Amino acid sequence: MRKLLLVVAILLIPASSLLAQDEPWRNRPGRYGRNTADNYFELMPFVGYRYGGTLFADQSNLFNHNVDVESAANFGANFAIPVMNGMKVELLVDRQNTHFTNGAGGLFAPNDRLGGFDITYFQGALLIPFAVSRQATPYFVVGAGVANLDPKVRGASSDTRFAANAGIGVKVPLGRNLGIRVEERGYFTSMSNNDNNCRACSYVYNHDLYQGETNVGVFFRF
């Protein structure tokens, strides 16, 4: 019995010593040292709300008047690759299933829907953190890619256009490999009509698609 107690004591003393010396996860160094604690790959599913956008009649053959893009939910996924000093290269897919509206509704009155409209952004971006602390990581993000525009209107087909994005947000860690990210991001999509023979007119009167969105996601580090 005494030998058994002695063995248990020998096993417990080192374990208790290790627990006493273990720091909280926020104070532990990262994979490549304490100053690069955010140099991890990250995968983040997210949901949000996208708003804004007008499709001008002189940039498409869908309608003979300007139409609005109805505000609606969006969803997507983001994969971040560490580069240096906490910066990350992001690969982003971001989709919205929405509708065209005539924008003629009065105050608090519903707009008439003219057809479905799916917008999917495929983007690459650079995330740049600033004012980093152990409680939160605010950041800027800027990037470019393409937008797939898919109108659900008879006789219309989808089109892919150049698009760019920029935003600002904050990441809040909940654990060593888990956290919440809140972000405001804006998109620009080129709607230039390349068939226009007047280059100066196309430049001056070109109407592009602008949208904004607010996203919330959960990111996983590995």
Question: What order do the helices and strands come in, and which of them pair?
Answer:
Elements: H1 2-21, E1 42-51, E2 54-55, E3 67-69, E4 72-84, E5 87-101, E6 113-129, E7 137-152, E8 159-175, E9 178-189, H2 199-205, E10 209-221
Antiparallel strand pairs: 1-4, 1-10, 2-3, 3-5, 4-5, 5-6, 6-7, 7-8, 8-9, 9-10
Provide an overview of this structure.
The chain is mainly β and 222 residues long. The chain has helices at 2-21, 199-205, and strands spanning 42-51, 54-55, 67-69, 72-84, 87-101, 113-129, 137-152, 159-175, 178-189, 209-221. The chain contains two helices and ten strands; from the N terminus they run αβββββββββαβ. It has an eight-stranded antiparallel beta barrel. The chain is elongated and about 55 Å long. The two termini are 46 Å apart.
Short description:
By secondary structure, this protein is mostly beta strands. The chain has two helices and ten strands; from the N terminus they run αβββββββββαβ.
Number of helices: 2
- Note the overall shape: elongated
- Largest sheet, order of strands side by side? 1-4-5-6-7-8-9-10
Helix proportion of residues, in percent? 10-25%
Please give the radius of gyration in angstroms.
Answer: 25 Å
Oligomer: single chain
Low-confidence stretches: 3-23, 30-36, 198-204
Entry keywords:
222 residues, mainly beta, eight-stranded antiparallel barrel
